[in-house]
Write the structure tokens for this entry.
Amino acid sequence: MQLSIVTTLYRSAADLREFHERAGRAAAALVRDYEIVYVNDGSPDDSLAVALDLFQSDRHVRVVDLARNFGHHKAMMTGLAHARSDLVFLIDSDLEEDPETLSAFAEALHESHADVVYGVQQKRRGGLVERWSGWLFFKIFNLLSEYAIPENVLTVRLMTRRYVSALLTHRERETTIAGLWAMTGFRQVALAVPKHVKSASTYNLGRKIALLVNAVTSFSDRPLVMIFYFGLTIGSLASVAAIYLVIRRLFFGVALPGWPSLIVSVWMLGGLHLIALGIIGIYLSRVFIETKQRPYTIVSHVYEHAPESAALDNPRNRGAVLR
């Protein structure tokens, strides 16, 4: 097989048939043999029913039904694990990126001799708060992480088999897929693509903060190092201040007045102490989760068609099989 198109389903029923038609047409114009892998991430709407209807009418379709909602990043990794082709095209099914860009990605991959061509937004979408929070996310992550993420990076990307195989060797339970894309390495090339605004982003400010905390603590130990140096700095300043106060008292007879300044200092240091303990606790929770070795997704069913050879040998195998 030459090409796998992998996408996830979550509240995708409204766009799914159009996506399938456009993605199939783009794939057929590029290669003879392809598959479209739909991963149902516990979608609460009719996404699975629509995908199964497409599965019945199109032998190129495979449907991976997860046991519940595990999250976008983990569902994407599961879809990549089920892709069987030499090239894998990962794209969201909400039509915010055009499936027809597949040809441009394939051309860029061929010309650059890269292992990955990934999409970046031509212009960041949304209002001031959304654009500002997105910009801040990338800045903070790249400041604290050893593996820089390209700004305004999108899900859509075309990857070679060796890159996908290397990506799937990562077995983190708390998955931040953008960090894994960068961490895996190989030659990667950016391609600017338009991103359509079809609905408000589900990544609100709270989710972005949670994603940032998860991403930083998954890919960097710099916050722990910063705590050490920050504590060392505070301790050094406190020692200098103590010596200064003793000198003033012994040689000049001046005591430091003011309980408010003392209370403020206690509250400030107490807050910093709690922040430091919280950061350490987050890292400990990451260790706790990883040591359990739980699967990051659980597959309920895989709907796929019998191979063409089996269908020819046995008429009963011409229908779909469930694995």
The first strand starts at residue 3 and ends at 9. The two ends are 19 Å apart (CA to CA).
